[in-house]
Amino acid sequence: MSMLLEVSGVTVTFDGFRAINNLSINFAPTELRAIIGPNGAGKTTFMDIVTGKTKPDEGHVIWGERNISLLGMSESQIAREGIGRKFQKPTVFEAQTVRQNLAMALKNPRGPFAVLMHKKTKSNAERIEDISGQVGLSDSLTRVAGELSHGQKQWLEIGMLLAQEPRLMLVDEPAAGMTPEEREKTTDILKEAAKTRAVVVVEHDMEFVRRLDCKVTVLHEGAVLAEGSLDHVTSNQTVIDVYLGR
Ligand code: ADP
């Protein structure tokens, strides 16, 4: 199967320190993946590389969708290719309603390429219905975003990201600060989104990773330490040592 994103042999050095060290990691066109690893493992730097914020010193980052390198592209060009990122803190327009927030996201398609690709068979109103349903906010469309719970704000932002129709979504600790019920709902939203795209979740919370029930990649010292099911990677002695701090 051809890959959606291929990162191979990537190294990032900050003042002589290798934050990312010969990292190779691939993602399929539709998959849910959790990336875990202790503090300083390189998880944030990895997301910065994929989104073009940080340029590697060595290695290749190939966008399989068009078989092109992402390395010469700006952050906005990469976003237009269909790579979306959700930061940990929700950033929605608090004074606007849920509907207005989603409408704004729909009005800013990721670029000319996306517009060409996207067959406009549905009106924006229909798409807002679809997306709000996907993220569990159908009954909250007229509510002001600032009045939503923390979990609902996170779902709204995921909805705004989905409105951009990313092929690859990077999501940073989506369950942080959520109630158990909100976590469960978030799991469902991410699983559903991953049926039609790659969804990569960077996560600290092992209980949440267990709920995601997906392939896990463990990063350590800027490289892949282990990969596979959660049970597989957590039975690896080196992974256990790394998490216990040796
Ligand atoms: P994680 O997200 O897994 O906690 P990071 O990607 O933030 O890890 O960091 C990986 C390593 O690179 C850490 O040791 C961190 O201190 C270092 N690092 C990250 N960004 C910079 C920077 N801009 N300058 C210097 N060192 C950095």
From TrEMBL:
<dbReference type="InterPro" id="IPR027417">
    <property type="entry name" value="P-loop_NTPase"/>
</dbReference>
<dbReference type="GO" id="GO:0005886">
    <property type="term" value="C:plasma membrane"/>
</dbReference>
<dbReference type="InterPro" id="IPR017781">
    <property type="entry name" value="ABC_transptr_urea_ATP-bd_UrtD"/>
</dbReference>
<dbReference type="GO" id="GO:0005524">
    <property type="term" value="F:ATP binding"/>
</dbReference>
<dbReference type="GO" id="GO:0016887">
    <property type="term" value="F:ATP hydrolysis activity"/>
</dbReference>
<dbReference type="InterPro" id="IPR051120">
    <property type="entry name" value="ABC_AA/LPS_Transport"/>
</dbReference>
<keyword id="KW-0067">ATP-binding</keyword>
<feature type="domain" description="ABC transporter">
    <location>
        <begin position="5"/>
        <end position="246"/>
    </location>
</feature>
<dbReference type="InterPro" id="IPR003593">
    <property type="entry name" value="AAA+_ATPase"/>
</dbReference>
<dbReference type="InterPro" id="IPR003439">
    <property type="entry name" value="ABC_transporter-like_ATP-bd"/>
</dbReference>
<keyword id="KW-0547">Nucleotide-binding</keyword>
<protein>
    <submittedName>
        <fullName>Urea ABC transporter ATP-binding protein UrtD</fullName>
    </submittedName>
</protein>
<keyword id="KW-0813">Transport</keyword>
<dbReference type="Pfam" id="PF00005">
    <property type="entry name" value="ABC_tran"/>
</dbReference>
